[in-house]
Structures are given as C-alpha cells and as structure tokens.
Design a protein that fits this description.
The protein is of the alpha/beta class. It has 13 helices and twelve strands. The strands form three sheets. It has a seven-stranded mixed sheet, sandwiched between helices. Strands 9-12-11 form a three-stranded antiparallel sheet.
Length: 408
C-alpha cells in the first residue's frame, strides 16, 4: 500500500470514464476538459466561415501555433511542421531517403512495431537492410547503451533510427551522444519521440537529431491528431512531401500564400481537413504550464516508482532498468511471469476495470503502466489487486511478434 500519495489534478478535469482505472495514457493520451473545449471552439470557428478560415486565415494561424510549440521544445518555428501523428512524420523522412541496395538503417530491438513495418516495407522495395541491434535487459548505464548501439555501425550505415522513449519497454534512451556521433560520421539521425514531448523536458537544439517526430496528443494532452516533425535547417532541403498538394510550388499558387520555407509549404497544407487539433496545441501548452507540469511529472514519477516496486515484489522479477528518472519517467514497463497476454489484458479490463497494456517483447510478456496527473492511489491499488488475482491463474503462453501490440 502506498501512503500519502495525492493525484496532482482531479480526475474529473479530464473526460475519462470515472469507473475505469485508466493506466494507459501512453497509448493515445487523454485531453483535459478546458483544452478539449478550445478544440471544439476552433472547430466551430472553422465551420462558421470555412473559406475565410481555410483559404485566408489558416497560414497565419498555423504559424502562431508552430511558434508556441517551437518555444516549448526550444527551436525555431521554421524548423517544425504539424503532422497528424509521429508515424506520419517519420514516414515523411523515411520515404524521402531514396535508399539503395545495401544501405543500412541501424536501430534497436525496442522500436515501435509500426516503425519496424515501415522500414521493412521500404527495405523490401529498395534492397536496403534494416539492421536491428539487440539491447538486452536490464539496461545498466548510458555509456553501455551507447556503445552497444554504436557497435552496429558499418561503412554501409546510412541512417541511425532510435526511439527517445520506447513503446514496448518504456525506457528513455540516451540519444544525444548517438546523434552527435552520427553527425560526425555523416550518418543521418532520425528519432522517434512519440512519447517524449510533455513527459520529459525537450530541447531539440541540444538533442542534436537531424529529424525528430513526436505526438502532442499523448503526454502534452493536446487533442488526437496533433503531432510535429522537426528537421534541422541543413536537412530540410532533402525532405519531400508525402502528399503533394497546393503547398508544392507554392510560389506559383494563388491558393496558398507562400512562406519563407519550402519545407513548411510542402508539408503543412495537404488538402482540406480539420486543422483544429494543431491550433489547439498552444492551449495544451498553456494548460500544462499553468498546472506546474514539472511538479506534476515528479509526482507521477513517484507513483510510477512505487508501482514498479510493488509489481516487482509481486512477481519476483527484477525491473528492467536502474531506478532513475534517467531511464523512465511517467511510463514504466515490468516483466510478468508466463501468461497469455491477450487473456490477461482482457481480464484486467473486463473483470477489474483496469485499462493497461500487456505487451510482448522478445517473446516475453510485460506490463506497461502509465501514470498521468489524474491517476490516484486507488488506481494503483486496483491494478495490484487485479494482478494478484489474475497472475495466480494465468496459464499458457502466446506466441506473438515483438511489439505486436498497437497500443502506441
């Protein structure tokens, strides 16, 4: 039992079902009521005069929204474009590379399953090689991690692709040193930061990645469909539009006012759609700043840390990383004893009202627990009670692909 823990924010400040112990913020996020109301106001404003909004105001509105986000992640607004999700942002870069037979994309065995599929698709078409470097658990030190990954570099390595925070194992990877080495070696660095923005402080200029994509709709609590792609100024000329629309050859178009950046013109406007989620990101940033998010993150880490200890004590299985915010923050993954992952996840939800993902990584089951500002002591207790009941009767195993879960 954890004593004296108080959730930083009341649960009813969010739109979540109050009957569910929602411990899966990491998959799709959850939007606070005032941010969601701002989102709906933007949607109503669009519908009030669609031609005025989309045809004459949108470019300026998106610039304002990019500027607010850029200040939050410490870069220039000209280095960012909004995209629907990190998967889209990463696809934009990967599909711009024009890979050749024998080119190598170096990665780890902790990456998000959708991105593994993206690279395999591109490698099958081009003859390039998706080279997966194993990083065994438990991880130990940042220096050991860097050397393990870098030992996979060869003269054919063209791209270093890493998660900043991994989806299946919820680990924070020390990517800065690897990005530095990659640039010195002439290797392009592409970072999947889907879980990072809002969960850890992010300074894109210090990080040093050539490209970085993250979801504002996860830990920054923006509406679904708000994410961004960052590109270093020197790399922007290499990026091609995933969707060709009026932003292409913008200087020759009377429909879209051109900006000073081809990168922004080609990526920002991809046809008629609802851009309200993008325009709400500044509201999400204001929300977290007004609620002292650094303190919120520390409080959430404290509960995640104690949940980690309790699950490890229950299962008798050691955690997968040192107990440090350098390795995990609000999202923590723990190994489970042999069980049927699908059956366990279903039972936790259907019988106990606990929403939490059970993932399979390297053929072993794990539980990934997310702690957000609304999570309570009672949520943690309900999870532990449910695990104690279900793991006693969990039998069998299920053969699944690494990262099969699409929980994000």
């Amino acid at each position: 039992m954890i004593s004296n823990y108080q959730a930083p924010l009341p649960k009813d400040l969010f739109l979540l079902n109050p009957d569910i112990a929602f411990l899966n913020h990491g998959s799709f996020g959850a939007t606070p009521r005032p941010v969601f109301e701002s989102y709906q106001r933007w949607q109503r404003e669009l519908e009030w005069q669609p031609v005025e909004f989309l045809g004459r105001r949108l470019t300026g509105l998106l610039h304002e929204a990019r500027s607010a986000l850029a200040a939050y992640v410490h870069t220039s607004a000209d280095n960012l474009v909004y995209v629907p999700n990190a998967t889209t942002g990463l696809n934009i870069v990967a599909r711009s590379l024009h890979l050749s037979p024998g080119d190598e994309i170096l990665t780890t065995d902790h990456e998000y399953g959708a991105m593994d599929r993206m690279w395999r698709f591109l490698c099958r078409a081009s003859g390039a090689v998706y080279k997966v470097q194993p990083v065994p658990l438990p991880v130990t030190t940042a220096a050991d991690f860097v050397e393990r990954v870098w030992s996979g570099v060869t003269p054919r390595t063209r791209v270093l692709f890493l998660s900043h925070m991994t989806s299946p194992t919820a680990l924070i990877f020390p990517v800065e040193e690897l990005c530095r080495r990659a640039r010195a070696a002439g290797i392009l660095s592409l970072v999947d930061g889907a879980h990072a923005v809002g969960q850890i402080p992010l300074d894109l200029e210090d990080l040093g990645a050539d490209f970085y994509s993250s979801n504002a709709h996860k830990w920054l609590c923006a509406p679904k469909g708000a994410a961004f792609l960052y590109a270093r100024p020197e790399m922007q000329r290499w990026v091609e539009p995933l969707i060709v629309s009026w932003g292409y050859e913008a200087n020759e178009s009377a429909f879209i006012p051109p900006s000073a950046s081809r990168f922004i013109d080609e990526q920002e406007y991809t046809g008629t759609r609802d851009y309200s989620a993008y325009l709400t990101v500044p509201d999400a940033i204001r929300f977290v700043q007004e609620h002292r998010w650094d303190e919120v993150r520390r409080d959430c880490h404290t509960l995640a840390q104690q949940v980690r200890e309790r699950i490890a004590a229950l299962t008798g299985l050691a955690p997968i990383s040192p107990d440090s915010p350098d390795w995990y923050m609000q999202m923590v993954t723990l190994p489970l004893p042999p069980c049927n992952p699908t059956q366990l996840k279903t039972r936790l939800m259907d019988e106990f009202g606990v929403e939490v993902p059970i993932v399979v990584w390297n053929e072993r089951p794990y539980i990934r627990v997310s702690i957000q500002a609304y999570n309570t002591q009672q949520d943690a207790d309900r999870l532990l009670d449910a695990l104690q009941a279900t793991l006693q009767v969990g039998k069998g195993s299920q053969s699944t692909e690494k990262g099969k879960s699409n929980d994000g």
